Amino acid sequence: MASSAGYIIASSCEDIIEDQHWLTSTYIMFAVPYFVYDIYAMFMCYWYKLRVKGHEEASAAPQHMSSALTSYLRREFLMVLHHVVMVTVCFPVSVFWRQGKGDYFQGIMFMAELSTPSVCLGKILIQYKQQHTLLHKVNGALMLITFFICRVLLFPYLYYVYGRYASIPFHMVPFTVPWHCNLGAALLMAPQLYWFSLICRGALRLFTGSSRSQRPRPPTAAPKEQQTDGSALPQPANGYSTRSTDHCHSNKM
After folding, report:
1. pLDDT at 138
2. What is the C-alpha to C-alpha distance for residues 120 and 149, in angstroms, rounded to an integer?
3. N or C: which end of the chain has fewer CB within 10 A?
4. Inter-residue contact 196 to 152 (CB < 8 Å)
5. Cα angle value 200/247/201 (rounded, 5°)
6. Are 219 and 57 in contact (CB under 8 A)?
7. What is the per-residue pLDDT across 148-193, written as a single tens digit (0 to 9) for each?
């Protein structure tokens, strides 16, 4: 939905600074409640996983809601921070501070969600222990490509487009635009680079053959060390884990 809205907005703006589209602010107003709800939904999924996923995990899981909340925030800090920033910073900046300018750039930002379907499918395949399948490998390659194009190259592209608009060289754009634009782009790009590095590590393991040992196996009792150090707890809700069995999923923009 975000990608469709972004395409409609971007394709309708001939002047990338001055042209406006009604869908820009409307979609932002629609998306803000989602980010608020998603924080709550991710925590509730985490909480109920601790209750139902097996005796070994239950014995290592926090037993009280407050402890579970602390554990959840510790494990999902980056994703929760991302959602909070979207609501408290990006929302007022996009709706009020821009004063109706730059709808084209906002539309391009929405199109970053093109990478989300492959990220989500990768997480689902991991949860169902399908890492050994061809579908998982094909989806992993697609996720790597789409995430790189839609979320990593996104920001250089925005600088390139503005450079063409203002008739200045690409390398001079950061020195021409206001400092807070550079700061905002850097803060938004930083988590994308981090998540992309985790995806690359997972893809390297996947395509160098280490995933061949990940075929489903009969359940066995977890070692006591695993039960006490928390490694048996559910995977992070965002799916970006450095463990060998978890290399995909995303954050939402």
Report:
1. 92
2. 17
3. N
4. yes
5. 30
6. no
7. 999 999 999 999 999 999 999 999 999 999 998 899 899 889 989 9
Cα–Cα distance for residue pair 25/96, rounded to 1 Å: 9
6 belongs to a structural domain: yes
Token pair 């996720």: residue: 143
Contact between residue 48 and residue 41 where contact means Cβ atoms under 8 Å apart: no
Q: At what angle do helices 103-110 and 2-12 cross, to 10 degrees?
A: 150
Q: Determine phi and psi for 239, rounding to 5 degrees.
A: 80, -10
For 99-123, the pLDDT digits (tens) are 888 999 999 999 999 998 998 898 8
Does residue 193 lie within any of the structural domains? Answer: yes
Backbone angles phi, psi at 209, to 5 degrees: 95, 0
Of the candidates 114, 95, 104, the one whose C-alpha atom is nearest the C-alpha of residue 10 is 104
List the one residue out of 177, 244, 12 whose CA is nearest residue 108: 12
Which domain does 5 fall in, by range? Answer: 1-55+64-207
The reported pLDDT for the residue numbered 237 is: 42
pTM confidence score: 0.71
Residue 240 has pLDDT above 90, yes or no: no
pLDDT at 47: 84
- Counting the structural domains of the chain, the total is 1
